Amino acid sequence: MANITDTSSSPSVPSCNIYPRSSMIHGVSDHTLGVILPTLVYIAGSLVFYAFNKFELFSNYRIHPPKEELHRNRVSRLGCLLNVMRYHVIQISIGLLLTYNKEAEFVKMGDCEIYQWARRVRKSFMVIPWALTLLGLDIQGLISTSREAPLLSHILATSHDILSSPTFTAIEWNFARVIVSFIIPAIQFTVYLAVVDTWVYFLHRLCHINKTLYRVVHAQHHQLYVPYAYGAVYAHWTETIFLDVLSFILANTISGISVRQGMILSSLATLKTISDHCNFVFPWDPFGYINGNNARFHDLHHQSWGLKHNFSTYTVFWDRLLGTEWTDVQGADMRYVRTHELVKARRKINEINVAHPKAE
């Protein structure tokens, strides 16, 4: 096989046969692993934050004081846990049903895909000189002045020998490798994220606009005024299917990602959901650092005064575009402080009543 670092040659024509990809874990198909993995990630992530709460770690990063949930939440931790278990049973059942008897994912052997893209790259390069000629530019003059820029010189060269050559230059081959290894996955990720984020935003917002949907379905999730990690997916079963599960089915189908890409993205989405409800705002939180959609952003939506804001789950794109992002930072801080003080005062009154019950 030729050295692809050579500026005039590339690997020989590869075999383009396809073969079933072996599973990552012996005896467990990638499809099955992809269905179960988000639940395993959910359990692991929830246990980490449960430990933070249990041992009062990183208390300076908490949004709500300890035990405030006991006075504000409308569901017990046990009731929430049972609901979350049902969520994962539904999610896994639908996933296993959709992948039942599904064959292993087929992949192309060796560098076949890179070879195919190298051919496309070459053809696209050949269009550029033609387009520049139509614009009245002196191609030969440009070539003579671009000798020290191999890529530009190669693109401008219109030799028939280059087009008909059975091998590729290192420039063509490496460009194709970048497309296959980075550009295509980046596009797939962007499409995947756009589909999920768009679906969740508009359906979530609809659940708040339509009073019946909110009362019957979505209000259950908002029984958690003080969210915690393992309660992230506490919701009505209808919301589980149509808001969560269906959004990822659509994203997988439209983006065309592979099974293993799906494992990575669904795991990241699970971690993001846990992070949104964890009741901690860490300065090193990668999700919040990227676009500002962090635990504080979503926790504000869980407050009675923030229900009509911050509908997005993964980005802030739609909230900012459509004006539903909460932007009054100082106003939010004041409301949080007032809420904490009211809960604290109520707790003291309850303690006094318990210690000194009124005589009948």
Instruction: Tally the structural domains.
Output: 2
Average the pLDDT over all residues and give the rounded result. Answer: 87
Beta-strand share of residues:
under 5%
In DSSP terms, counting alpha (H) and pi (I) runs of 4 or more, how many helices?
15
First-to-last CA distance: 95 Å
Any idea what the shape is? elongated
Q: Level of helix content?
A: 55-70%
* H/E topology pattern: EHHHEHHHHHHHHHHHH
Strand order of the largest sheet: 1-2
Largest sheet: 2 strands, antiparallel
Give unreliable regions as ranges: 1-9
Mind telling me the C-alpha Rg? 28 Å
Would you count the extended β strands for me?
Answer: 2
User: Helix- and strand-based class?
Assistant: mainly alpha
GO cellular component, one term: membrane
Keywords: Membrane, Transmembrane, Transmembrane helix
Transmembrane segments: 32-52, 178-203
Main location: membrane
Tell me what you see in this structure:
Mean pLDDT is 87; it is low at 1-9. This protein folds into two domains: 18-108 and 193-355, no CATH class; 112-176, no CATH class. The protein has helices spanning 30-54, 68-72, 77-98, 112-134, 139-144, 150-156, 160-164, 170-209, 211-216, 237-255, 259-276, 286-291, 295-302, 317-321, 329-355; strands at residues 18-20, 106-108. The protein has 15 helices and two strands. Helix 1 (30-54) packs antiparallel against helix 3 (77-98), helix 3 (77-98) runs parallel beside helix 10 (237-255) and helix 4 packs across helix 8. By secondary structure, the chain is an all-alpha fold.
